Amino acid sequence: MPIIRVSIFVPALLVLGLTGCREAKITSYRAPKETLPVLPPAMTADTAAATSSAAPALTGTMAGTVVPVASGVAELKWTAPATWQSKPASSMRKATYAVVGDNGEAGDLSIVVLSGDGGGELSNLNRWRGQLQLNSETAMEAEAEAAHFTANGLKFIVVDYANAKATPPSRLLGAIVPAGDATWFFKLTGPVALLEREKPAFLDFLKTVKAP
Fold first, then answer.
1. pLDDT tens, 83-134?
2. Which of 15, 44, 98, 195 can bridge 85 by disulfide, Cβ–Cβ 3.0-4.6 Å?
3. CATH class of 56-206
């Protein structure tokens, strides 16, 4: 039987045409250039003051946090004992005095003013106790231990804390004085015996505090 050879011919144009149909169409796009926001320059003390003339001044700190004192707060004045040595004030203190004993022991008196209630009476009293490594007190315990008096139209909350077990033993005489929209803090710290001697002078000093 004769062998029949069948040739299958696919035209080259047909192959190319089919290939071209399957080829993905490439389209190019031009993305718009991204515009970055313009950030304001870093705020400085000078620019902050220029931004608002009514901005409160920063004059005190509580537990590491700076507390603003509202502008227009009335200042207080006082008369310190002649034996107390006035020291330069700082951004955190309105005034500082060194109280020196006969044997060279030294105490430190600081005067700080904070806006409003300065964080609250109880929190400040317990903060003072913490500085002497004493336990915190409840509101009832703190009230029972504090003394109160009024002088020159101002109300004084006075405390006397001591820790004889500390190294070295230490003591703190403190007074909290609300005055208008601010609260003033008078604190004398030092050796136990020195503050025992200076306590009458400290109380007399508080009675000289008054508004101008």
1. 999 999 888 899 999 999 988 899 999 999 999 999 999 999 999 999 999 9
2. 98
3. alpha beta
